[in-house]
Amino acid sequence: MADSDQHRRATFADRLADLVEARESQIVLGLDPDPMRLWPDALALVPADGSPVQRAAAAVRAHCAALIDAAGPACVAVKPQLACFERLGADGWAALAATVAHARERGLLVLADAKRGDISVSAAAYAQALVGSTPTPFGEVEGLGADAFTANPLLGVDALTPLVDGARAAGAGVFVLVRTSNPGAADIEDLVLAGDGDGDGDGDGGTVWERLARIVAQLGGSPGRSGLTDIGAVVGATAPEHVARMRELMPHAPFLLPGIGAQGGRVEDIAPAFAPGRAGGLVSASRSIATAHESTGAPPAAAARAEAERLRAAAWSW
């Protein structure tokens, strides 16, 4: 059996748990490249000719490769923010594809931070683009090849189902936004719902994020050998007071935990996330790693590696 076939036969959750143990890391390296804040060494590699978008995309590609090489050994996955690549058009998407390939070469999982959400045909197309392939009269067209992606659930279960089905068909995972790390999350996700009073748990009041958590648990179904399901939740580390309740509602979902570092979240405040095992909580950090040199004065690669190692040790201790 080819390596790619073996890669796809195992469930996403089991592959994740195996890699967390093998690499002794729960750290997800966020890749949010800002063309105006790229590492100097990456800028130095850009050809002198070419259009602005071609040169910017080349610099982004070089920056992400250098960041992966520096911090990747302390991480289990990368999380490219697709918008940061898509704003550079076709050249940006090519830089994204190259970044995904580079991360795979370094033994890392790829979690595409896409936050996709739509109905029917559109949702299925998103899944094909990110983790699957698209049949055409001329043969299969491969998508990005990510191992998982983030999804927006606010269109409802019927919009999530094609994303989940597409991911499972590819042996991939989905991380559903449940309670996010931004301050504005409280505007909607903390709103209290009216209860239907029937006691079945699916409409008995609670907050919006509690309802979303129940949907994640429902879609996840039974866990695999790792004790985790392939449908996870995005749980902001900036609101640690909710993490224990989320774990109660989603006992088998892997949590993707953004907000550590630059947004103020702390690993020591989110211990309940790790209740199912170390792979149950994935600590995502972007700017705190990529821009560590700006506060330490160390070379960018060395500073990034040191910050990633610090986070790895802090998370692994739980």
Separation, N- and C-terminal Cα atoms? 37 Å
Sequence of secondary-structure elements: HHEHHEHHEHEEEHEHHEHEEHHH
Average predicted confidence as pLDDT: 93
Spatial sequence of strands, sheet with the most strands: 1-2-3-6-7-8-9-10
Helix-strand category: alpha/beta
Strand content: 5-15%
Describe the sheet with the most strands: 8 strands, parallel, barrel
Helical percentage:
40-55%
Low-confidence stretches: 1-6
Looking at how many chains there are and whether they match, the oligomeric state comes to single chain
Strand element count: 10
How many DSSP H or I helices? 14
Which radius of gyration do the C-alpha atoms yield?
A: 19 Å
User: What best-fitting shape do the alpha-carbon axes yield?
Assistant: globular
Task: Please give a structural write-up.
The protein has 318 residues and is of the alpha/beta class. It has helices spanning 3-9, 12-23, 40-44, 52-71, 82-86, 89-105, 120-130, 157-169, 185-188, 208-220, 243-249, 287-290, 292-296, 300-316; strands spanning 27-31, 77-80, 109-116, 133-134, 141-142, 148-151, 173-179, 231-235, 255-257, 281-285. Helix content is 44%, strand content 14%. An eight-stranded parallel beta barrel has the order 1-2-3-6-7-8-9-10, surrounded by seven helices. A two-stranded antiparallel sheet has the order 4-5. Helix 4 (52-71) runs parallel beside helix 6 (89-105) and helix 7 packs parallel to helix 8. Mean pLDDT is 93; it is low at 1-6.
